[in-house]
Amino acid sequence: MRNPKTAKFLPRLFVLFVLAGCSNSDAPPVDQAREADNQTTQESGVPVGRLGDTVVPVHYRLKLTIDPSQESFSGNVSIDINVNEPTDSIWLHGKDLEIDEIFLTDANDKRVAASYNQQHDSGVSLVALEQTVDAGAMTLDISFHRPFEAGRNGLFKVVKGEDSYAATQFEPIAARKVFPGFDEPAFKVPFNLTLVTLADHVAITTTPEIAQETLDNGYVRRIFDTTRPMPTYLLAFAVGPYDLVDYGTIPANSIRDREVPLRAVAARGLGDRLNYALENTDGILTVLEQYFGIPYPYQKLDLIAVPGGFGGAMENIGAITYNEILLLMDEDSPLSQRRRYAAVHAHEIGHMWFGNLVTPEWWDDIWLNEAFASWIMYKAADAYWPDGEFDREVQKRALGAMGNDSLAAARQIREPVDHNHRIRDAFDSITYQKGAGVLAMLERYVGEDGFQAGIRLHMKRHADGTATADDFIASVAEGSDRVEIEAAFRSYIEQPGVPLLSARLDCTDSANPQLMVSQARYAPLGSTIEPGSGQWHIPMCIAYSADGAKKSQCALLSESEQAIALDADSCPTRVHPNADGAGYYRFALDDAGWQGLIGTVPGMAPAEALALGDSLHAAFQGGKVPAESYVAGMVALVNHEAWDVVDAATSHLESITTILDTEQLHEVERAFQEIAGPRFARLPSGDDTGTALLRQRLQRFLVVAAKDQEMREPLARKAAARIGLDGEPDPSAAPASELETILSIGVQDIGEPFFDLLLEQALTTEDPAFRAAAQGALARVEDPELVGKLQAALLEGSFKGSDFIGIIFRQMARAATTELTYSWVVENYDEIIGQIPESYRSRVVPAFGSAFCSAERADEWQAFIEARADQLPGYERSLAQATESVRLCAALREAKATELVAAFEN
Ligand SMILES: [Zn+2]
């Protein structure tokens, strides 16, 4: 699953299994250590973690009648099971299902009466048999019905004008809202799927349709081919009056000797916008096949643009679902949209091997699934689109995750998941971005070829089965022949936090220079992290200049203090403690060391400049570097050549303003104009990807963060022309890639007539890119009266799901609207949480309070949420992280705000 970031402060939300019953699985048997994890937790006798292995599924025959013009769907499932010991009850999953009939056919073909009862709100249900059955192979038959969901979970219905569409999202545990079954990733078995639909509807699921029968009243029965062994969470269904575009087939290639049929669907009328995505699928798929050395594992591929909003994308086998913005585009669409398509498409297709062909044994290893896909997506996107500027994305995102990982309340990558309610917790920036960064670090250390050999070995060993993180690291250690990485891998996944390496050059013996390095967990000012805590096995790579040459070398640090002998005969003139920026750690230098390194920024490799920017920013937040050096470093980085180094530096500057009050902010805005203005003025005129991205980012920084009035005026005119404030809308008035910035200026500087028209257009447009830009701009409104209008629109339900959440986060995060939004949230709390999908509430709602910068507000918000804890099961971590961020901000403000403003004035 891959979910878009909703807002800066939002933990990545959306942004997306024991015994393989299948005969061709070579998955290892359940080992004792995992049993001891106690994932089969009982709550009043109900297994709220894993179901255990008394009864396991072997094969499903699932029939669903789906007509989205109705309010409910119905179905029948016939599950072949193995009963491993005599029993009179069967635990399985089913949530809020109405059961019409249930019975068991035992090993002697005798029908045994049964009853069904849901025992836990997470959908753990008990099938009680009228008599005890002996061990053996039997079949459980259940008929059921249920209303469609309204949110984007389970089997849901989207109404758009006259049309109604059905689609699904099952990961992690919503398949149980659609049919009764064994809804755990380890139960990988084949399915035979049948759909009853209206004859003129499109119907898509995992496998191709192989037969169709006409029924009464305009319905047809569609029979689909048997699936490969798969877990429930990777099933998908889409039924309705979709536009279907049949692309034909992806031709055979050197890895695959068969063709793969490819199609895509979107809401009626939008089919002609699917061609770009279809045309660019073959290239991405082929790159991945070449990496794994295994053909695309499934029979066909369908791409589904879910109508009317969807949280990111989901790698369902053979039927990937996407938010419309990720599929509906063309060559002229914004660069950011096309880059996101390429990366997310590579992420989801990458899951077809890692996640789908080889599936995590249980949710405690879903992190590896997502970390791997978040790592390979950029490798594949870069191979497919070499000018797309994807090569440092994994590093940048890992650096981004370090913010959350610096909190005392940070989560370790791999955590036991012993309760259905804690599965959601396993999908956050630590899972996706830190996980991917750790994989990249290991790849840098063992080398690309060795790492790839390990992955190929892993795929071969566990194809069609399940695997744990231990299995993965064993494969990589064996494939790369580097056993020492096991300890490094474990030290990173089994403890939270960012390692901080303090480095000092020792040239006492100048012919034998050494780098003295000590490690401890990074802690910002005001942190409750114990000083000196944490110890890792760190693959550290150092870049330096000595003996007239540029050099680099790697070492595995395992001690709290270590001396690394440099391969040089003279004292180095420059040392960068994170060569290629590939290490998941921060570094610290003394002030002279910082100044020396800052002096070498102009010729520094972009990845090393990014690592420097992060470490320097962190050192300032830790109170370990004077504001003057900090500002000097950021100014040097703003003048670096690489677009993303400039972007990162301006983002650091923008984020540090959260510690300033309004008056200080105005002074700093002027300094920002002086820092970034000249850089913008000397941009080359080219339209390569890097230059285009730099122009967009710098322009946004100058007009939004630095409030450059001279730049804003012409943009306001463009904004008015674009939406047709005084005539017809003129799409050529604003480049697609700058649209959000331009519309934001319209909202802020033109005011009410602009706001009203843009709001209307945002709610009616069929163009997902325009909608996203318009929503982003509306969320930047500052005029209190218009803020009130936006809030009214939110309460009326004009924005759904992640759009709704994203607007609230943006309004909370902007200093001008934080307090207005806060009082509105408090006053309308029940209505607001009613509009947030239940499965996200516990994560999202506490995080609304992360934008303050005062300890009093942190206390207040904590008390407010704790008083409403009943509505937010599992809220604790999200609240702890939100309030800790606020307290850290307050501590930094107290210690450093005045010094920072003075440094900008110089
Ligand atoms: Zn994913």
What's a quick, concise take on this entry?
This protein is an alpha+beta fold.
Helices and strands, with pairings:
Layout: H1 32-36, E1 42-43, E2 46-47, E3 55-65, E4 72-83, E5 87-93, E6 98-105, E7 111-120, E8 124-133, E9 136-147, E10 154-160, E11 163-169, E12 191-198, E13 202-204, E14 209-214, E15 219-224, E16 238-240, E17 243-250, E18 260-266, H2 275-279, H3 281-292, E19 301-306, E20 313-314, E21 319-323, H4 335-351, E22 359-360, H5 366-384, H6 393-405, H7 429-446, H8 448-462, E23 466-467, H9 469-480, H10 485-493, E24 499-506, E25 514-521, E26 538-546, E27 549-557, E28 561-565, E29 574-576, E30 586-588, H11 591-598, H12 606-621, H13 627-638, H14 643-656, H15 662-681, H16 689-705, H17 709-723, H18 739-750, H19 752-764, H20 768-778, H21 784-795, H22 801-813, H23 818-827, H24 829-834, H25 838-847, H26 855-866, H27 876-905
Parallel strand pairs: 3-12, 18-19, 19-21, 22-23, 24-30
Antiparallel strand pairs: 1-2, 3-4, 4-9, 5-8, 6-7, 6-9, 7-8, 10-11, 12-15, 13-16, 14-15, 17-18, 20-21, 24-25, 25-28, 26-27, 26-29
Helix pairs in contact: 3-4, 3-5, 4-5, 5-7, 6-7, 7-8, 7-10, 8-9, 11-13, 12-13, 12-14, 13-14, 14-16, 15-16, 15-27, 17-18, 18-19, 18-20, 19-20, 20-22, 22-23, 25-27, 26-27
The structure holds zinc ion (ZN).
Describe, in plain words, how this protein is organized in 3D:
This protein is α+β, with helices and mostly antiparallel strands. Helices cover 39% and strands 21% of the residues. Strands 5-8-7-6-9-4-3-12-15-14 form a 10-stranded mixed sheet, with no helix packed on it. Strands 17-18-19-21-20 form a 5-stranded mixed sheet. α8 (448-462) packs across α9 (469-480) and α11 (591-598) runs parallel beside α13. The protein is globular, with a radius of gyration of 28 Å. The protein starts with 31 loop residues before the first helix and ends with a helix. The model is unreliable at 4-37 (pLDDT under 50). The structure holds zinc ion. Zinc ion binds at residues 1-2, 16, 315, 347, 351, 370, 373.
